Fold this sequence. Notes:
Radius of gyration: 40 Å
Largest sheet: 2 strands, antiparallel
Strand order of the largest sheet: 1-2
Structural class: mainly alpha
Distance between the termini: 142 Å
Number of helices: 13
Strand content: under 5%
CATH superfamily of the largest domain: Rhodopsin 7-helix transmembrane proteins
Order of helices and strands: HHEEHHEEHHHHHHHHH
Helix content: 55-70%
CATH architecture of the largest domain: Up-down Bundle
Amino acid sequence: KAGEKERDNRIEGKTASARPVSPTCLLENRQELRPSRDSGLRPIASIHHPNQAQQNHNNNKTRLNSLTNSNQMAPLRCILFLAALCSLIPALHASAGDADLIYKSCVVQCEKSGCVGEKCFQHCKFSSDGKPIDGPWYMQEPLYLRWKQWDCRSDCRYHCMLAREEEREKLGDKPVKYHGKWPFQRVYGIQEPVAVALSALNLAMQFHGWISFFILVYYKLPLNPNKRTYYEYTGVWHIYGILSMNSRFWSGVFHSRDVELTEKLDISSAVALLGFSLILALLRSFNVRDEAARVMVSAPLIAFVTTHILYLNFYKLDYGLNMKVCMAMGIAQLLTWAVWAGVTRHPSRWKLWVVVAGGGLAMVFEIYDFPPYRGYIDALALWNAINIPLTYLWWSFVRDDAEFMTSALLKKAK
């Protein structure tokens, strides 16, 4: 046994001397012979190439580091992208006029010196402590200007705008918007005098139409034994008249002085009028007389209009969304009246056709915007001008409808 053991030791020594194996290589071979989850045993090609496993290990480590770095950089890239996108928002909402360097420089110099060319403003002169000289600025203005709240910045912007537009006109350039508004000529502190005058005429026509309707149904047409009108749509037309006069009033105020409060009041009153006009068109065209049915028709539209007004006033004043909503309600009521005029035998249906056609034409001026002619007449002024005769004709149709339905009900009663 001792001889056999010595012979075996000699054989193992010769084998080891014939092919030396390092401990590192043995460790790698042992690791590569472990069972793999994918295919039983791992490849053993590295047994003959000891450096390949180390190279693969380094490559995997490099890839892992690169993936880790890219994952760490992803949030930073997203933040940079959002920051770049947000920086574009003011540029998207800015007008070409207020982005003009000459205009901006003029406003800055005016706020410091209180003058634009030879015209100076008393309320732009401040003392060393930042207070206006000779008291508050609104005490230095004429009475008709005090309620307008023109301050140093607004006056500087206005007169710098006029000066810049004169220069652009000499160069043959077209007018541009400043702070989202076309350049208008002020008259006695009124920003858009023509639009204000036409809004006042529209208000007068609405008042005349509503009063004439009121006199007709309560003093000229017969009343039932309960002293109520036979015309079943008297109440909704009264609400329509009040909302119409309210809308025209705030429209005139807004075009007289454009501030955040007057703008929101103008938009809110217009949305309320359009929403109720659509309700009225549906009730009258489909001859809805039952109170429960009227509530079912009106409630969803009232809820939608109320939500939209609250959204504009307290969340975001989205001009694009508001334009789409108003256009949708306006087109819906025009189509409703047009279809009803085509199927009814109403004696005054031709008035409906004229109002629908005129309303469609006026809506074009709401969409197509162009610079004010001579600084006074723009698309909105033309829209107000078209609405004056349409308002008169519309209330004429309402009076005719009251007479027609009252006579029809009295004939049935007999």
